[in-house]
């Protein structure tokens, strides 16, 4: 029998980390070979199954990524930008596929990740769900079909712990709308409106962020013109959709050449 590919989950105590661990433990296509969390976290040194409130699974949480990445074929990483940049370099050294779900990355972070991708396969997406990636494609098509008499607004809602805004998904949708319109998002992006902002500039792509409770992730792309509106909507009700997409991306990346990929590549969209 061939060995199943080994996956390491970083940020194991996080909302996504725990979901990813359960997804890998329940998978018949991959096995969990390591869990990393930040130095000083209570869970470091504990069996991950016990730390999550269940039975032992034989994998101890570590704060030493180098040692566990060396045993992995893939690393799935939903942590923070600083941690993700560090993990990109270490996953490249270990030649492990690096699946990045972390959002809020700066241009410098993305450049550093690009350098790591010369040595391994990196799949990065602000949203790993099939539904959202379809929504991105639809947004581009609708923006292409409509002229700038239609104002484009991206409205997103997330739980009250989320630290970055607009969400990575909202930015993906904004990029798709800009691409459909043949413009650069940086030139037309309008976010964080407050106070006397003046009238809306024609052609802008606006962003609004709602934060509250336990909302997993909701995104609307609104195309508003005089007399009519089109709304494209995705509602995530379970983080499992992101975890399933991430595990799929890790397995997909195993036989690919080094380079940067996204979920459109994985899903063949
Ligand atoms: P969270 O705060 O619940 O979890 C983050 C985890 O990372 C924690 O366990 C924390 O201890 C760990 N961490 C931080 N720094 C670390 C380090 N240096 N080394 C090891 N572990 C470290 O956050 P969350 O809700 O799970 O989200 C995590 C990230 O994933 C965010 O950027 C979020 O926006 C993103 N996200 C992406 C998608 C997607 O589909 N791409 C979906 C949901 C969330």
Low-confidence spans: pLDDT under 50, at least 5 residues? Answer: none
What portion of residues belong to β-strands?
A: 15-25%
Average pLDDT number: 97
* Alpha carbon gyration radius: 20 Å
How is the CATH topology of the largest domain named? Rossmann fold
Instruction: Please write the string of helix (H) and strand (E) elements.
Output: EHEHEHEHEHEHEHHEEEEHEH
* Counted beta strands: 12
> What is the CATH architecture annotation of the largest domain?
3-Layer(aba) Sandwich
Total count of domains? 2
Characterize the structure shown:
Keywords: Amino-acid biosynthesis, Cytoplasm, Diaminopimelate biosynthesis, Lysine biosynthesis, NAD, NADP, Oxidoreductase. It is built from ten helices and twelve strands. The protein has helices at residues 15-25, 48-51, 65-69, 81-93, 107-116, 130-145, 168-181, 185-188, 240-253, 263-267, and strands at 6-10, 31-36, 61-62, 74-77, 97-100, 121-124, 151-158, 189-191, 205-211, 217-225, 228-236, 259-261. The mean pLDDT is 97.
Q: Characteristics of this structure?
A:
269 residues; alpha/beta; Rossmann fold; Dihydrodipicolinate Reductase, domain 2; five-stranded mixed beta sheet; 24% strand; binds nicotinamide-adenine-dinucleotide; oxidoreductase; lysine biosynthesis; DapB_N; NADP; DapB_N_CS
List the helices and strands and how they pair.
Elements: E1 6-10, H1 15-25, E2 31-36, H2 48-51, E3 61-62, H3 65-69, E4 74-77, H4 81-93, E5 97-100, H5 107-116, E6 121-124, H6 130-145, E7 151-158, H7 168-181, H8 185-188, E8 189-191, E9 205-211, E10 217-225, E11 228-236, H9 240-253, E12 259-261, H10 263-267
Parallel strand pairs: 1-2, 1-4, 2-3, 4-5, 5-6, 6-12, 7-9, 8-9
Antiparallel strand pairs: 7-10, 10-11
This protein binds nicotinamide-adenine-dinucleotide.
Nicotinamide-adenine-dinucleotide binds at residues 10-11, 13-17, 36-38, 41, 78-80, 83, 101-104, 125-128, 168, 242.
């Amino acid at each position: 029998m061939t060995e199943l590919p080994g996956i390491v989950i970083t940020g194991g105590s996080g909302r996504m980390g725990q979901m990813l661990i359960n997804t890998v433990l329940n998978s018949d296509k991959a096995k969990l070979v390591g869990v990393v969390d930040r130095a000083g976290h209570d869970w470091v040194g504990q069996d991950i199954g016990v730390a999550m409130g269940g039975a032992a699974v034989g994998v101890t949480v570590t704060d030493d990524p180098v040692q566990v990445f060396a045993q992995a074929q893939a690393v799935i990483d939903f942590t923070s930008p600083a941690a993700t940049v560090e993990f990109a370099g270490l996953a490249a050294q270990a030649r492990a596929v690096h699946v990045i779900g972390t959002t809020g990355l700066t241009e410098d972070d993305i450049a550093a990740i690009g350098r790591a991708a010369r040595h391994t396969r990196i799949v990065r997406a602000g949203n790993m769900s099939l539904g959202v990636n379809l929504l991105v494609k639809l947004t581009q098509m609708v923006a292409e079909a409509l002229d700038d008499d239609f104002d484009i607004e991206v409205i997103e809602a997330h739980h009250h712990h989320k630290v970055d805004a607009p969400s990575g998904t909202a930015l993906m949708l904004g990029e798709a709308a800009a691409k459909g319109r043949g413009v650069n998002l940086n030139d037309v992006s309008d976010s964080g409106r407050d106070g006397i902002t003046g009238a809306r500039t024609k052609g802008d792509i606006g962003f609004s962020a709602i934060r509250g409770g336990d909302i997993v992730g909701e995104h609307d792309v609104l195309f508003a013109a005089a007399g009519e509106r089109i709304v494209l909507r995705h509602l995530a009700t379970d983080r499992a959709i992101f975890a399933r997409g991430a595990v799929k991306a890790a397995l997909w990346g195993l036989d690919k050449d080094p380079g940067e990929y996204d979920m459109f590549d994985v899903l063949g969209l």
